[in-house]
Amino acid sequence: MEQKRIFKQMIDFNRSVFDRSYSAMVIWQDQVERAARALQEQASWLPNETQVIVDEWVDAFKKGRDEFRKAVVGSFDKASETIGA
Question: Is the dihedral of CA 34, 25, 58, 70 positive or negative?
């Protein structure tokens, strides 16, 4: 019984670390996106196609990070179920 409690604490700790790291990464990526958009707006010499490409890139990046989060959270959930927590 003690092992289950220890494993649950380990899973909870790792989930907390992941959640905080993920949040920090999202904040950083959002700041980079805002800076890139501001730079792009000031660069009148860039063609409009560039904006389309950047928008697609940002959307793909956000989709990828959301899917990554779902996979990791799913793994934490499976680990919790396995130990019966």
Answer: negative
Place of tokens 């560039």: 50
Q: Which two tokens stand for residue 85?
A: 């927590």
The CA-to-CA distance between both ends of the chain, in Å, stands at 11
* pLDDT digit string, tens, across residues 14-58: 999 999 999 999 999 999 999 988 888 888 888 888 888 888 989
- Taking the complete model, does pTM exceed 0.85, yes or no? no
Tracing tokens 């730079």 back to the chain, one arrives at 39
8-17: pLDDT as tens digits:
999 999 999 9
